[in-house]
Amino acid sequence: MGAETSQQAVSSDTITREELVARATQLAPLLRERAHEAEGLRRVPTSNVQALKEAGLFKTIQARRHGGYQMDLHTHLDVVSEIARGCGSTGWCLGVMQAHSWLVALFPEQAQEETYGVHPDTLIAAVLTPRGTAKKVDGGVRLSGFWPFGSGCHHADWLILGATVQDHEGQIEDEGEFLIPVDDVEIQDDWHVAGLSGTGSCSLVGQNVFVPAHRMLSLRRAIAGDDAGAHIHDGTLYRSAIVPVLALALTGPALGIAKAALDDFAARLPGRMVAFTDQEKQLEMPTTHLQVAEAAMKIEAAHLLLHRSADEIHGAAEREAPMELPARAKVRMACAYAVRQCLEAVEMLYLACGGSGVMEANPIQRASRDLHAMNLHGLLNLQTNQEMYGRIVLGLPQNTPLI
């Protein structure tokens, strides 16, 4: 490691979870002021990215060996949630980029050194779904494809892109994740969406990009707990099951967005009269009390589910035993269910806003749109996860390898 990396690694030993979460909490009001700007830009403002870097928040679950803080998944959830209370799009990009820093620790050591080993402040965007094709050649593969939903790609130095791996005869033999410099692909300006619109999740296009063999992670082997790089790190964080970690990493923004919406709804109530009533005060209406109570409990239930999932992932890693299939399936199901609870809570509050709720100045409408977008993510789709988990509960064969 270089001098810069060594200095940061030493400082990472002294930081606490509470300090990292406090840094995120302090940033949230500033990010809230820029939330509308992010939507207009259709990407996270550079000033937000710089603020997150200066606070060290991208390093939450980055390996200590490479200048990160190597905190646990509870810290990840709390930090991302606090940032999302200010700006949902910024929270989303922070969450997925933290997940990518975790994933790099599973790659061969040479790939880790080329990224965080060279520059601990490296940012990595990704599209992990194997949408591309990687054809084997001498020394590596030739990677081609079209990868939509590259959240945060405008601020990334490197990318991780998923692809099916073809042998020299063109037969599919694996699915892999491939680490490449961002300049090796084209970023298409096609992120025109209704929710999470400030994430800059543009499509990525690459053609015949050479990727050396050491910058590939076999997805099949990683799911089976057989990766090339985790053994070089101390602790249990990088021995955690890959799909549960990647699913959980997506959920922190939902908690923050929903908690902010509840605060915003409460702030609207004083002095507000309900239209087409006999000047009833919304704050004093029993209906309002029921709505707020249910929304608050849905958010709390989501919070508890996600932190319980973090405990289960960590517990399996500490036992140094593979996380069993039913436990992995339950975590993926819990992630989808928790994110849906956040959406349902915010929808209840949004519908209680009345006609003024549609105004751009009302942040609850943005919260609703952002949570709808999160619930559309393939790994968080409730019905897909219900089918997946229901099969496991009933002892039927799994219908996806991504568990």
Textual characterization of the structure:
The protein is an alpha+beta fold. The chain is built from 14 helices and 7 strands. It folds into 3 domains: 118 residues, Orthogonal Bundle (Butyryl-Coa Dehydrogenase, subunit A, domain 1); 95 residues, Butyryl-CoA Dehydrogenase, subunit A, domain 2, CATH 2.40.110; 152 residues, Up-down Bundle (Butyryl-CoA Dehydrogenase, subunit A, domain 3), CATH 1.20.140.10. The N terminus is likely disordered.
The chain-level mean pLDDT equals 95
Q: How many domains comprise the coordinates? A: 3
Number of helices: 14
Radius of gyration equals: 21 Å
What is the CATH architecture annotation of the largest domain?
Up-down Bundle
Structural class comes to: alpha+beta
Helical amount: 40-55%
Strand arrangement within the widest β-sheet reads 5-6-2-1-3-4-7
CATH superfamily (homologous) name of the largest domain:
Butyryl-CoA Dehydrogenase, subunit A, domain 3
Relative strand content: 5-15%
Task: Describe the structure concisely.
The protein has 14 helices and seven strands. The chain is α+β, with helices and mostly antiparallel strands.
Task: Summarize the topology.
Layout: H1 3-12, H2 17-33, H3 35-41, H4 46-54, H5 73-86, H6 88-104, H7 109-117, E1 124-137, E2 140-150, E3 158-166, E4 172-181, E5 186-187, E6 202-212, E7 216-218, H8 219-223, H9 242-248, H10 252-268, H11 286-318, H12 325-351, H13 363-375, H14 382-393
Parallel strand pairs: 1-3
Antiparallel strand pairs: 1-2, 2-6, 3-4, 4-7, 5-6
